[in-house]
Amino acid sequence: MYLPEDATINNIVCYLRRSRQDIARERRTGEDTLAAQRKLMVDELERLKVPYDIAEEIGSGDKIETRPVFQQVIKELKEGKYDAIAVKEIPRLGRGTYTDMGQIYDLIVNKRIFILTPFKTYDPQNSADLRQIRFELFLAREEFEMTRERLIGARYTYAKEGKWVAGSVPYGYRLNQNTMRLEPYEEEAKVVRLIFDLFNNGLEGKEVSHKAIATYLTRLGITSPGRAARWNYLSVKRIIENEVYIGTVKFRTSRRVENKYYERPESEWIVVHNAHPPIIDKETWEIAQAKINLKNASRPHVKMDFSPCELAGLVICAKCGKHMIRQLNIQHYRKKTGGTSVYHKEFLFCPNGCGFVKYRDVEASILNYLEQLGEFDTQKLVEMFNETYNAQKEAAATLDVAEAIEQKKAELRRRLNFICEKYEAGVYDDETFLERQQEIKREMALLENIPQNNKAPDNAEREMVTLKENIKTFLAAYHAAKDKTAKNNLLRGLISAVYLTKTGKGKFNLEIYPLFSFRK
To answer: Is 172 left (phi over 0), alpha (psi -120 to 50) or beta?
Structure first.
């Protein structure tokens, strides 16, 4: 590694990342290839006596959008923070799409970014070096495409032979590295048999759901497929519906298009029966599938009377940012006298499991708040409005609102792309993928609920007078209305959002944001 005599290089960024070959070697030998790469580059850079920073990409991605560290490096190169980028070899910059390569190439040329490798220094103002850079980038991409085609071809061949090539190994099995076939792992296989037995036969004579089975396994202290202490109902559901447990291997059943998965036609599937020893016998499997089909058939596929309930879309879980959902359970109890009583249990619950509260208690608290709001004098309402407006204005100032939100959304989309890549490559199992996907969705939901329109009305006092008048009209109309959707529309005309925090059994706090600037 050397510096050209006519070049002025004051700062260097050294970009390190694992190649696919590095990852394969680590799996075989346990060697830390990133540490070896770091030592090589640091030894070379120290001899130059030029300040440098090191940027390490822990993961490996084919596209720029799946490499957040490299995205930051590109940004800093554009800003002129560095005059050169040091890499072990040019392909480390990326073997992504031709669009990605064009972005890297244009940046190097336009900013005259020197590329330093242990064996050669490339000057973008030297035509021979520039030709070599183009050739290296093109060759890296073509090599990647050929490697991918060979791997896909090999996977198809192995799949047709019944070998396991479909990603992470299913719970209950271990992969024989010599035969590439699944073999039952008895400690987990007996849990799989227990799950099917509970689903088919119930527990103590009672039918049990996926969620009930998950709770039961957690209480038994059985470790889940994701090595967590708690079982998720989705893990139970996937086990019951997975044909791998009767010895069947399925491959190429879906395809990915822009981070969405679509089912392929069955004619394109690769299905091999008796590919490995089954954990569940065919009869047990068929009983479970018949039960699933019966439950699905009993559910109405089209809701003939769908209409929003009173609080639909208004109440948000303050802990995770998810909209809370109404749940109605009807239970029948036998009286001592011999008759039957019917009890309606109506709750608001958080889909992320943060908790649930009684639906009608929340509705009553909101109405009570509005009733008290209507009794306040106008000056008190103006003060409340100013507090809310200033709080939102201060929050907006720290966030730079719209621009910051869009930037954060873009970052979340990049993260989603990244975990999809890892899931497709088999790096993440189902449990890890779903957990990280839900985390991103929660963050996205929180962004959606950040207030962006904080414009104060010209005459706050007049707005408050209008609000008081409409609260009185609202309360009369709400109590008179018999249609739940009409009530929802009335509430949405007065309330922007309600944030609910559960504080104890049956207890909660509400943070209510009224629409101070009321529109008729």
So the answer is: left
Concatenated DSSP letters of 344-395? EEEEEE-TTSS-EEEHHHHHHHHHHHHHHHHHS-HHHHHHHHHHHHHHHHHH
- Structure token pair of residue 310: 């009173």
Burial class for 341, CB neighbours closer than 10 Å (0-12, 13-18, 19+): exposed
Q: What is the mean pLDDT of residues 28-43?
A: 84
Q: What is the DSSP letter of 61?
A: -
Q: Which candidate in 19, 60, 168, 517 is catalytic?
A: 19
CA atoms within 13 A on the CB side of 194: 13
Q: For 384-440, what is each residue's pLDDT tens digit?
A: 666 655 555 554 454 455 666 677 777 778 778 777 776 666 666 666 676 677 777
Q: Tell me if residue 307 is catalytic.
A: no
* pLDDT above 50 for 502: yes
Distance CA 265, CA 32 (A): 42
* Integer Cα distance of 478 and 484 in angstroms: 9
Q: At which residue do the structure tokens 């706050």 appear? A: 460
Bridge partner list, 332: 342
pLDDT band at 302 (very low <50, low <70, confident <90, very high): very low
For residues 55 and 14, the answer to whether their CB atoms sit within 8 Å is yes
- Asked whether the whole model's pTM tops 0.70, one would answer no
d(CA 449, CA 404): 14
Instruction: Report residue 304's pLDDT band, with 50, 70 and 90 as the boundaries.
Output: very low
Exposure string of 60-91, with b = 16+ CB inside 10 Å and e = fewer, is bbbbbbbbbebeebbebbeeeebbbbbbbebb
Structural element, H or E, at residue 52: strand 52-57
Residue 250 φ/ψ, nearest 5 degrees? -120, 140
The 8-class DSSP code of residue 323 comes to: B
Two tokens, residue 419: 């975990």
DSSP string, 150-172: HHHHHHHHHHHTT---SSSPPTT
